[in-house]
């Protein structure tokens, strides 16, 4: 065990293990995870690709990471600027031409670097006190990452298989009496090996999914987590203490909102919602914002939706991973938006 004088050196590890003790947003936690990995000396090329995919998903990601990177330097984690990393961040941080911001983002963007660092220090100290003056080592964990355009299969030590959609990151933690994983970003299909003595718990944002042995798909976006059950029974609950869980069976799905609350249980079509497992992207009247979020996992030049009015525009289309340009072509010829080709991205703006 490590004593209090090493608090700051383990703060990043404990943020994920004890998320209920933080007030950080999902994007802030993701940015911290990326900073930890990229400065650990263990990052591989596939990690850099996944990081750039995460940056390209939303302007907020780049701006948040910039704050975290500076914070990291301020508390002496990094001695000097990584020029390659800065270039990646710069390529995705662009001026918001509309000057609009979601209310949930405003506090972060107005937060100073020192304030962000202060919050982290308080969180670490709070955890230190709760542990009686010592910081306990976290469960052994492994990070699994898929590249943009890649579908990757991971077999865990208990026999569970996890299929990662493009640009997805999960962290797994196992011990003698615990099985768990966190979906940090992206989409993953879990085929959980049965073990009644050790339920398998998946964390995605503020949502906890608990199973004994079953098959289910989890998709995480900035605004929600979608849980779809293919076989068996799944318990879904908010992370807050005393939250009432919902139970899903095969063929059922629900959304959990990042801002809090669970949606209604509804039926779904595996052949569309989980089509990525067989190399296709299938949509029937799906909102454009969700389609773009998924399609971006399979293309280097990210699509950026700047037309808020089109977020819920219904899309019905069938694509192979290498056919995502057809989505842009379809929107162009439908006459519903202006398409602007930029270096490294495609911007969809109001017509």
UniProtKB/TrEMBL annotation:
Alphabetical list of InterPro entries matching this protein: FecR (IPR006860), FecR_N (IPR032623), Ferrdict_sens_TM (IPR012373)
Gene Ontology MF: a single term: sigma factor antagonist activity
Coiled-coil stretches: none
Entry annotated with the keyword Transmembrane helix: yes
Membrane-spanning parts: 108-130
A Pfam family reported for this protein in Swiss-Prot or TrEMBL: DUF4880
Top-rank lineage group of the source organism: Bacteria
UniProt domain FecR protein: residue ranges: 144-235
FecR N-terminal domain location: 30-70
Stated name of the protein: FecR protein domain-containing protein
Organism of this sequence: Paremcibacter congregatus
Higher taxonomy: Bacteria, Pseudomonadati, Pseudomonadota, Alphaproteobacteria, Emcibacterales
């Amino acid at each position: 065990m490590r004593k209090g004088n090493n608090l700051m050196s383990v703060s990043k590890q404990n943020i994920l293990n004890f998320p209920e003790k933080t007030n950080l947003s999902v994007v802030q936690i993701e940015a911290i995870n990326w900073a930890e990995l990229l400065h650990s000396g263990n990052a591989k090329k596939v990690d850099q690709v996944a990081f750039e995919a995460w940056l390209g998903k939303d302007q907020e990601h780049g701006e948040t990471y910039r704050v975290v990177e500076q914070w990291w330097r301020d508390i002496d984690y990094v001695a000097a600027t990584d020029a390659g990393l800065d270039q990646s961040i710069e390529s995705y941080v662009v001026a918001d031409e509309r000057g609009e911001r979601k209310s949930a983002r405003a506090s972060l963007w107005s937060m100073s670097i020192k304030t962000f660092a202060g919050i982290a220090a308080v969180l670490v100290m709070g955890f230190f006190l709760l542990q009686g003056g010592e910081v306990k080592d976290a469960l052994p964990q492994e990070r699994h990452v898929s590249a943009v355009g890649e579908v990757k299969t991971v077999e865990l030590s208990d026999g569970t298989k996890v299929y990662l959609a493009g640009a997805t990151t999960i962290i797994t933690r196992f011990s003698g009496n615990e099985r768990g994983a966190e979906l940090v970003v992206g989409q993953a299909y879990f085929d959980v090996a049965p073990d009644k003595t050790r339920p398998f718990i998946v964390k995605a944002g503020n949502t906890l999914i608990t199973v004994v042995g079953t098959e289910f798909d989890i998709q995480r976006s900035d605004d929600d987590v979608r849980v779809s059950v293919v076989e068996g029974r799944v318990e879904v609950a908010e992370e807050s203490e005393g939250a009432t869980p919902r139970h899903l069976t095969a063929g059922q799905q629900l959304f959990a909102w990042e801002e809090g609350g669970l949606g209604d249980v509804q039926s779904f079509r595996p052949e569309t919602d989980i089509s990525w497992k067989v190399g296709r992207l299938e949509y029937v009247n799906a909102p454009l914002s969700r389609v773009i979020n998924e399609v971006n996992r399979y293309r280097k030049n990210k699509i950026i939706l700047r037309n808020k009015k089109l977020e819920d525009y219904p899309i019905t289309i069938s694509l192979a991973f290498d056919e995502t340009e057809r989505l842009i072509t379809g929107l162009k010829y439908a006459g519903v938006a202006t398409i602007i080709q930029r270096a490294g991205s495609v911007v969809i703006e109001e017509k």
